[in-house]
């Protein structure tokens, strides 16, 4: 079983076989000065929308994949990954066409369906009360992050502290984005905890020398939370949770 699955306690998260004690979370935060949040699947429940949209977009560009294959290949990755996949499959460079087509379809769906992850604003409130800094470190583009913040109303929480894969040469699973974000915030790697939902993101956090909390509470893991938890532990997550309210309770002052 995944590391942490045999830890019991009165405030444990026991959903889908995931069991992580509050004391484990508290221990991680003992030396924490800054939290780096991934966005999609961690702050907002966007992955079911974006993955389903990407299935449609790949089909449009004659490089079809199933929803499961899209999830396995592209969760946590920047748009360069599907663009490269299309080129490999079709020989066609769609760099100029991909984002406008994808974003038009995606943003229309965001306006209808995008929501915040349950409990995330409580976590942000607790971090603020504890004087722990936080920012976004996301594989999404600046344009997509701006749309996400506008639709969900999360923008004011992260004013001036939004870091995109657009800012670095190598996206996740390379550590570049997390190192850039920590440096821009004025903190060392050892001060940081990353909260991530993808194997690519967890891998990047560990490569950056940072602690990492895996999160499997997003809608894209609704049918496989235990399997997703196992994959994040195997990628190097220190702990994995499926409920942001548990995180808030564990670290509350």
TrEMBL record:
Keywords noted in UniProt: Magnesium, Metal-binding
Requisite cofactors: Mg(2+)
Gene3D superfamilies, alphabetized: HAD superfamily/HAD-like (3.40.50.1000), Putative phosphatase, domain 2 (1.10.150.240)
Protein family (similarity comment): Belongs to the HAD-like hydrolase superfamily. CbbY/CbbZ/Gph/YieH family.
Protein name as it appears in the record: HAD family phosphatase
């Amino acid at each position: 079983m995944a590391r942490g699955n045999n830890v019991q306690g009165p405030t444990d998260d026991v959903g889908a076989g995931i069991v992580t004690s509050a004391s484990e979370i508290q221990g991680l935060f003992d030396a924490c000065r800054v939290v780096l949040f991934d966005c999609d699947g961690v702050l907002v429940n966007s992955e079911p929308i974006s993955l389903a949209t990407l299935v449609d977009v790949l089909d449009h560009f004659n490089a079809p994949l199933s929803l499961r294959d899209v999830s396995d290949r592209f969760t946590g990755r920047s748009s360069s990954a599907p663009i490269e996949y299309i080129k490999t499959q079709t020989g066609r460079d769609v760099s100029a066409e991909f984002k406008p087509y994808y974003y038009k379809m995606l943003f229309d769906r965001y306006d209808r369906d995008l929501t915040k992850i349950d409990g995330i604003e409580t976590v942000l409130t607790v971090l603020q009360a504890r004087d722990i800094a936080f920012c976004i470190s996301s594989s999404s583009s600046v344009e997509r992050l701006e749309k996400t913040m506008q639709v969900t109303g999360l923008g004011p929480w992260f004013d001036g502290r939004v870091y995109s894969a657009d800012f670095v040469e190598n996206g996740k699973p390379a550590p570049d984005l997390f190192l850039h974000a920590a440096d821009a915030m004025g903190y060392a790697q050892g001060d940081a905890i990353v909260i991530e939902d993808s194997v690519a993101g967890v891998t990047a956090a560990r490569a950056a020398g940072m602690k990492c909390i895996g999160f499997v509470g997003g809608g894209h893991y609704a049918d496989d939370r235990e399997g997703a938890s196992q994959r994040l532990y195997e990628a190097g997550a220190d702990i994995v949770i499926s409920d942001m309210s548990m995180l808030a309770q564990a670290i509350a002052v």
